[in-house]
DNA sequence: GTCTATACACAGATAGAC
DNA sequence: GTCTATCTGTGTATAGAC
């Protein structure tokens, strides 16, 4: 699969995620019309991502956000109860979206090598399509309270465990070498993470996400595959 | 080389870095006695790293810092002119220290494979010995002004270029495969970075820095080495 | 549903006694 | 060289008109 193909599927979901934001938080917000809420949540989130990328969530003031969205302070506060809650909403909704996409693209009946390739690619492609969410989740996780932070950490763990399961399955089938699969999974995650943490670097060098995915796969396979497979 | 061996050398430098902080900023600070200054800078920096690890530099208040160092607000401000300057001092001094250590351990006359191993290890070992500095530099770089931020980025680039040079040298000697060395270097950096960004994870799993270094080397060598070398 | 004006708390920074 | 007390600006959040 190439990125453009993946992107088409993702784009077909449309503003799904902002509708979800509206519905999940309906009790806490004072806006009643879905259409207005969805439109403005999208505007607010985009502004948060943009400002936060420059200076971080703590340093972003509500006045910054007001300026960037062209909404007044009073208006903003009808969409969420506090700045802290806004942070929690973004995290919660991002996590939910990411989980859903992974679920949708995972096929546990494929042969291990194919699963490995697919999982690595989907993660990279999704982090490309939703880079602001990934970047935000990583950089601002420490601003969350203990409960929400744990949700983030357990997501990190579960995507890693998915990789471990695939590597173990492949080892049992004699396709992958016998290695410390947990450590291999960590390293694969580190490579995936670099894509969205250092996007500016890869962009400057004109490396596409397809190039990068190919390289990560080459790296991983040369290490994991049994010699007879090469 | 093992980590304990490296650590012994590093420890022998003692409070060198805090003496440097004092000397480089002597004009801007109101403290005159080196011994007092060095002692308190160490206390201040440690507190900053500790608080910042929990909630980030922006969220750290001067009152937090006062509490954590057992120094009064007034006292703190005799060591630096503003909170922003404190940030800049930490960054500048950290960068200088890191550069010095890399210089000291790099030997461009060794054979490429040995250089590669040594550069990867030294980076990992140093990030282990000075984890707070590395973590801080990465996470708080965006709070710097444009000029200081560029310094950080150019450091990132120069350590990467050092790797590229080694890989090219090895390719010319027929030891390494012909690959996109820049991308390989990026990926090696990503693996190194994961060590200090996710320290909690590796600690929980009882992976030592020597274990991790060995794994990164294995991963890298299986990808880069020409087959006849394996 | 959105706006302006404002309350209130708390942050960074300094003055001046010891 | 360190402290306490205090100034001043700015940030979050709300009240109430439109």
How are the SSEs ordered, and which strands pair?
The structure is a homodimer of 230-residue chains.
Chain A: H1 3-11, H2 16-24, H3 34-55, H4 62-69, H5 73-76, H6 83-105, H7 112-129, H8 131-140, H9 146-172, H10 181-197, H11 199-204, H12 209-224
The structure holds a DNA duplex (18 and 18 nucleotides).
Taking the alpha carbons of the first and last residues of chain A, their distance comes to 21 Å
CATH topology of chain A: Tetracycline Repressor, domain 2
* Radius of gyration of chain A, whole Å: 20 Å
Major beta sheet summary of chain A: none
Shape of chain A: elongated
Helical content of chain A stands at: over 70%
Runs of chain A in which pLDDT lies below 50 for 5 or more consecutive residues are none
What does this structure look like?
The structure is a homodimer of 230-residue chains. Chain A has 230 residues and is mostly helical. Chain A has a single domain, classed as Tetracycline Repressor, domain 2, CATH 1.10.357.10. Chain A has twelve helices and no strands. In chain A, helix 2 packs across helix 3. The longest helix of chain A has 27 residues. The relative contact order of chain A is 0.11. Chains A and B meet through helix 3, helix 10 and helix 12 of A and helix 3, helix 10 and helix 12 of B. The structure holds a DNA duplex (18 and 18 nucleotides).
Task: Give a concise summary.
The structure is a homodimer of 230-residue chains. Chain A has 230 residues and is mainly alpha-helical.
């Amino acid at each position: 699969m190439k990125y453009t193909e993946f992107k088409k599927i993702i784009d077909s979901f449309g503003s799904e995620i902002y509708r979800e934001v509206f519905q999940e938080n309906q009790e806490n917000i004072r806006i009643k019309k879905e259409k207005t809420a969805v439109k403005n949540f999208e505007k607010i989130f985009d502004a948060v991502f943009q400002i936060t990328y420059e200076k971080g969530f703590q340093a972003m003031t509500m006045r910054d956000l007001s300026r960037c969205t062209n909404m007044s302070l009073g208006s903003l506060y009808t969409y969420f109860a506090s700045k802290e809650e806004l942070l929690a909403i973004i995290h919660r909704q991002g996590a939910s979206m990411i989980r859903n996409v992974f679920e949708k693209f995972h096929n546990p009946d494929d042969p291990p090598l194919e699963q490995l390739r697919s999982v690595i690619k989907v993660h990279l492609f999704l982090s490309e399509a939703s880079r602001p969410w990934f970047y935000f989740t990583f950089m601002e996780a420490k601003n969350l309270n203990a409960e929400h932070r744990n949700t983030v950490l357990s997501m990190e763990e579960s995507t890693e465990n998915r990789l471990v399961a695939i590597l173990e399955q492949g080892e049992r089938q004699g396709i992958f070498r016998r290695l410390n699969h947990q450590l291999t999974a960590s390293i694969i995650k580190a490579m995936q993470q670099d894509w969205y943490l250092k996007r500016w670097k890869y962009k400057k060098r004109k490396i596409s996400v397809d190039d990068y995915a190919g390289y990560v796969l080459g790296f991983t396979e040369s290490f994991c595959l049994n010699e007879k497979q090469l």
